[in-house]
Specification:
InterPro entries: DUF6533 (IPR045340). Keywords: Membrane, Transmembrane, Transmembrane helix. It comes from Ephemerocybe angulata. This is DUF6533 domain-containing protein. Pfam families: DUF6533. It is built from ten helices and two strands; from the N terminus they run H-H-H-H-E-E-H-H-H-H-H-H. The chain has one domain: Rhopdopsin 7-helix transmembrane proteins (Up-down Bundle), CATH 1.20.1070. Helix content is 75%, strand content 4%. The N and C termini lie far apart (86 Å). The chain is globular, with a radius of gyration of 24 Å. By secondary structure, the chain is mostly helical. A two-stranded antiparallel ribbon has the order 1-2. Helix 2 runs antiparallel to helix 7 and helix 3 packs parallel to helix 7. A hairpin with a 2-residue loop joins strand 1 and strand 2.
Length: 337
């Protein structure tokens, strides 16, 4: 290799290092900016709310991800590095990125569970699929990081941790998560379509809660699937020096969208609570505080999932009645015959 080709290779590597640093800084800025934008809503709807699984997941997604991206930014811009530091830093970066994506998927499963009116079968199906996705992605991440050799290289303005010996099949890490996201997207679309068919129109029937759940879920799926696909293609086609570029944006997007999903539903709950007493029918309150009418498909669940996702008992009763609406319509048709 002549000197000219060597210099071009060095310049290309330097550009990739700068691009990686800038993307990390941009992703950190996105998370901090979103934190500032939604901090008032967080104080009102999260801090002042009672403790629940939903609140715990939100706080972990919010502050664990924030702490991880700040630490990653420190590692990217640290002046003095050693190979040992790079080993721990790259392992930390890999596992925290994977955990951040998994936390956001937990939030989305809570939304799907609410959309299906606390259907235990749907929950079991999602849990098994999620466990399989975690196991496969975690195994790929673990085996790759064990075989990786970190190298602290000198670059203009400091040093940079370069991963060496990355498997050419490392891109398969995104396949299980991408397939799981497509599965959740299918569940959300199926629920939205069945609700539309049984009620004619989500908007016309006034089911604003279902509209919010469906809208946020679909937006999340589209953005996350596009992000995962971008990561997969970059890891498959781009050089190893660009390996860390898509991870930072994936963490930022997962964190922001996951937090917005919970905040949107809790803000909707607060709006409904602030309505006048006459805005909610007595029949709706009765169905959620007393036993259901004889022969009704309405089944009271002992699981209190409302607090976890920001739904109150009245809203959960409406979601359950949406699920039972098709079967009730069939019975009504048979009786008319």
């Amino acid at each position: 290799m002549d000197i000219h080709a060597t210099l071009l290779k060095i310049l290309e590597g330097y550009r990739h290092v700068e691009l990686t640093r800038y993307t990390q800084l941009a992703a950190t800025s996105i998370i901090i900016f979103d934190h500032l934008l939604t901090f008032d809503g967080e104080v009102e709807h999260i801090w002042n709310a009672s403790w629940s699984a939903g609140k715990v997941v939100y706080l972990i997604n919010r502050y664990y991800t924030l702490a991880s991206v700040v630490m990653n930014t420190y590692g990217f811009y640290r002046v003095h590095l050693t190979n040992e530091f790079c080993l721990h830093f790259l392992r930390w970066q890999g596992w925290t990125g994977l955990v951040s994506c998994l936390i956001s998927e937990v939030i989305l499963q809570m939304r799907i569970y609410a959309m299906y009116s606390l259907d235990r079968k749907v929950l079991a199906f999602m849990t098994i699929s999620f466990a399989a996705s975690i196991a496969i992605s975690g195994w790929i991440m673990g085996t790759t990081l064990i075989k990786m050799t970190p190298l602290a290289v000198h670059v203009p303005g400091g040093m940079f941790c370069m991963p060496v010996g990355i498997s050419s099949h490392f891109y398969t890490l995104w396949i299980p998560m991408l397939l799981f996201e497509l599965l959740l997207c299918t569940l959300a679309l199926a629920r939205g379509f069945s609700t539309f068919v049984s009620n004619g129109s989500l908007i016309r029937t006034g089911q604003r809660l279902v509209v919010v759940l469906f809208r946020d879920s679909v937006i999340y799926f589209v953005v996350i699937c596009a992000t995962y696909m971008t990561c997969l293609l970059l890891w498959l086609l781009a050089p190893v020096t660009l390996l860390e570029v898509p991870i930072t944006f994936t963490v930022a997007v997962s964190c922001v969208l996951g937090n917005r999903i919970i905040l949107n539903v809790r803000e909707l709950r607060a709006d409904r609570v602030s309505l006048p007493a006459g805005a909610i029918s007595q029949q709706s309150v009765k169905w959620d505080t007393e036993q259901p009418p004889v022969g009704s498909k309405y089944v009271r669940s002992n699981v209190s999932f409302a607090d976890e996702g920001g739904l109150n008992p009245i809203e959960m009763g409406k979601l359950r009645r949406l699920r039972s609406a098709p079967s009730l319509s069939k019975k009504a048709g048979i009786s008319r015959r």
